[in-house]
Amino acid sequence: MQPRKGLLFSALIAFMAAMPADAQWLSHSESIMGTRVSVELWHANSAERATDCAGRVFREMRRIDKLMSPFRPDSELSTVNRDAAIQPVPVSPELYELIRRSLEFSRLSGGAFDISFASIGYRYDYRRGIRPDAASIASAIDNIDYRQIRLEGGRIRFGRPGMRIDLGGIAKGYAVDRSIELLRDCGIEHALVSAGGDSRLLGDRNGRPWMIGIRHPRREGEVALRLPLENSAISTSGDYERFFVSNGERVHHIINPRTGKSAAGSWSSTVIGPDATTTDALSTALFVLGPERGLKLIDQLDGLDAIIIDATGQIHYSSGLMAADPSSG
Ligand code: AMP
Ligand code: MG
User: Distance between CA 294 and CA 316 in Å, rounded?
Assistant: First the structure.
């Protein structure tokens, strides 16, 4: 959803190591939703059909961006932001459902994930190095409160004037999930779809797991660690995605809803789970929560794991990953 993420590969790098050029693999990437969207898929016989399937994915990503971008004045999301404090705004079932799920992740994370972060978040401009001052944060901090986002039978209403929402922490994962469903319906059995830091894998890669790299949060172009994965989703949130430095302080795009400022304590957080909507929302939540509270939350949830790189560079693993690693004690 963020147009300024640029063309750079984001938190994740998919490795195509040890793969000779193979006519049966199709890969393509484009800039959509302010990030790099990539699709890699294997097709058994028809290259034409594979191209058609990949095309559907990119069309779907553009459709979702049109619906949910806060930067398009004509998006449904922009209509909600303009009117929902005045009167309930009827929305599509799709947007309604994603907002509903966002509120679930807010409750699950004790408010660390909160799409109303945008009530202050919109005042940051990372490209131009602009941030709100203490007085404007203080005057708007009460507008960050997911409990004031009301779902009223297909309509959205805000409980406070000045409230805004932004789905930047969950919509890319949602778009990746939709894309994987489309590919599956298209008859594809092996694929990788990624949008910036959010990826999902369908099947494996030629009988072996996909190797997914987690970007090193401080060394550009380097990978901190690699994970073998199949049939799962992985999302990374990092303070290196969109930021500027002011008086030695890194001002970045993940906002702590309690303070209205950039969340401190981590360099990046990665969540692995069954679907990318979940991993996307939870990676953002874990970034805000930090290693201790974040991993405690993940350890209580079934089917989810996480890796947090803290603000000293130390790597913390959820207990599921510790159990899987024979070298850990
Ligand atoms: P991600 O890379 O998935 O962590 O998404 C970061 C994006 O999520 C930011 O660019 C914002 O659009 C949005 N965001 C920032 N802080 C929060 C928060 N506390 N809760 C939900 N979304 C957030
Ligand atoms: Mg996220």
Answer: 10
Please name the residue that has the structure tokens 């008859």. Answer: 187
Is the entire prediction scored with pTM above 0.85?
A: yes
Contact 167, 117 (CB under 8 A): no
Q: Which residues lie across from 227 on neighbouring strands? A: 212
DSSP state of 110: T
Rounded distance between C-alpha atoms, residue 179 and residue 182, angstroms = 5
What is the residue with the minimal CA distance to atom 6 of ligand 1?
Answer: 169
- Residue 20: is its pLDDT beyond 80? no
Class of domain 67-158: mainly alpha
Which of 69, 254, 258, 268 gets mutated to test ligand 1 (max ligand atoms within 8 A of its CB)? 254
Q: Which of 244, 178, 229, 223 is nearest to 37 (CA)?
A: 178
Q: What spacing in Å lies between the alpha carbon of 274 and ligand 2's midpoint?
A: 15
Predicted pLDDT at 327: 56
Contact 260, 137 (CB under 8 A): yes
Would you place residue 56 in the very low, low, confident or very high pLDDT band (cuts 50, 70, 90)? very high
Give the start-to-end residue ranges of the domains of the chain. 67-158
Nearest-CA residue for atom 12 of ligand 1: 168
CB distance 304 to 273 below 8 Å: yes
Tokens matching residue 71: 């930067």
- What would the pLDDT profile of 207-237 be if each residue is shown by its tens digit? 999 999 999 999 999 999 999 999 999 999 9
The alpha carbon of 44 and the centre of ligand 1 are apart by a number of angstroms equal to 38
CA separation for the pair 41, 270 (Å, rounded): 24
3-state secondary structure of 27: strand
